[in-house]
TrEMBL record:
SUPFAM superfamilies: 4Fe-4S ferredoxins. Keywords: 3Fe-4S, Electron transport, Iron, Iron-sulfur, Metal-binding, Transport. The keyword Methyltransferase does not apply. Pfam families: Fer4_15. This is Ferredoxin.
């Protein structure tokens, strides 16, 4: 069972549509020009998950980034369950093509 989720807002992508503040006003505020700011540290408790996920999915420019779930640990503190994908390691011989490009 998760203890909530974690999000981030990339303000450099935001185009000021304001949909996030409409769906989750407790987590997003709009400045005078309509651009969003994240309220708090991006931790979203389970009770607010649906509203924040709706904001994430409805953002037309995908400025809201899903960072993973918090899962309770044995020490009682929540720790994010985020794993980065490993970099691909293609095995090639000297002149073998990779994704239609030749080395």
């Amino acid at each position: 069972m998760s203890d909530g989720l974690r999000i981030r807002l990339d303000r450099t992508i935001c185009d000021g549509f304001g949909i996030c503040a409409k769906h989750a006003p407790g987590y997003f505020s709009l400045d005078d020009w309509g651009y969003a700011s994240l309220i708090g540290d991006g931790t979203v408790p389970e009770k607010d998950r649906d509203a924040v996920m709706r904001a994430l999915f409805d953002c037309p420019v995908h400025a809201i980034i899903y960072m993973g779930e918090h899962r309770p640990s044995g020490d009682g503190a929540a720790h994010p369950d985020v794993h980065e994908s490993p970099e691909p390691d293609p095995k090639t011989n000297g002149s073998e093509a990779i994704s239609e490009f030749v080395r």
